[in-house]
Amino acid sequence: MRVLVVEDEARLADALRRGLQEEGFAVDLAATGPHGLELARHGGYDAMILDVMLPGLSGYRVVRQLRAEENWLPVLILSAKDGEYDQADGLDCGADDYLTKPFSYVVLLARLRALLRRGAPQRPAVLTVGVLSLDPARRKVTRADTEIALTAREYALLEYLMRHAGEVVSKIELLDHVWDASVDTAPNAVEVYVGYLRRKIGRERLETVRGAGYRLRA
Predict the structure, then answer these.
(1) Which fold has domain 127-216?
(2) How far does the chain reach from its first CA to its final CA, in angstroms?
(3) 102 preceded by cis ω (within 30°)?
(4) Angle 84-92/59-68 helices, nearest 10 degrees?
(5) Tell me: the pLDDT tens digits for 129-150?
(6) What is the rounded distance in angstroms from the CA atom of residue 185 to the CA atom of residue 188?
(7) Helices marked H in the chain — which ranges?
(8) How far apart are CA 163 and CA 119, in angstroms?
(9) 0.70 exceeded by the pTM?
């Protein structure tokens, strides 16, 4: 198995290489974001261990670029940032797993093996409903080939509706799946964001079914 380690801290990179080689992995190192991206594109690796704070190009941007090119190389991100939003950002940008520094080498090895067992399956296909297109890997939405700028909440709402296109989706269902279940959110929040979304995707595409909910026209 070939693993690419992209880490600019030389001592850590060398320790990872030696440890992984002892486990039977073939390991290549890169110390900058651009070099790591180039190797990931053409190196034929089975997985990549990727630091976030890199010279030239951040780890997040490396992953986003790979996913934009439909390169599904399994990526384990390493980061000193341990906040839940930092981890969410890492996963949302297309990484497969996230491990905070300092980390247990035993845990890293277990996570890496789990990624290798899963391999690199094709990611979710682009969702298409009429002239609307939503790419989950790139978090990109277009209407008739024109990109639409959406907030995170609008994006989540549209993605859920597109995955249930043609179906009537209730306000309660939207609150459960699009909003944070631990926060007491008023039902009229759904109405507000449906209004925002209609202005961006076209009012005729998202209809209100009186007494039942909303339906994205298929």
Answers:
(1) Arc Repressor Mutant, subunit A (1.10.10)
(2) 44
(3) yes
(4) 30
(5) 999 999 876 778 999 889 999 9
(6) 8
(7) 10-22, 33-42, 59-68, 84-92, 105-118, 152-163, 171-178, 188-201
(8) 25
(9) no
> Percent of the chain at pLDDT above 70?
89
What distance in Å separates the CA atoms of residue 96 and residue 87, rounded to the nearest whole number?
11
**What's the maximum distance between 2 C-alpha atoms anywhere in the chain?**
64
> Which H or E element spans position 50?
strand 47-51
Sign of CA dihedral 29, 83, 73, 56: negative
Using the 8-state DSSP alphabet, how is residue 204 labeled? G
CA–CA dist 81, 89 (Å, integer): 11
Axis-axis angle for helices 188-201, 152-163 (nearest 10)? 80
Query: What are the residues whose beta carbons fall under 8 Å from the beta carbon of 106, sequence distance 6 or more?
Result: none
- Options 3.40.50.300, 3.30.540.10, 3.40.50.2300, 3.40.50.1820; CATH for 2-118 is 3.40.50.2300
DSSP string, 182-198: TS---THHHHHHHHHHH
DSSP symbol at 203: G
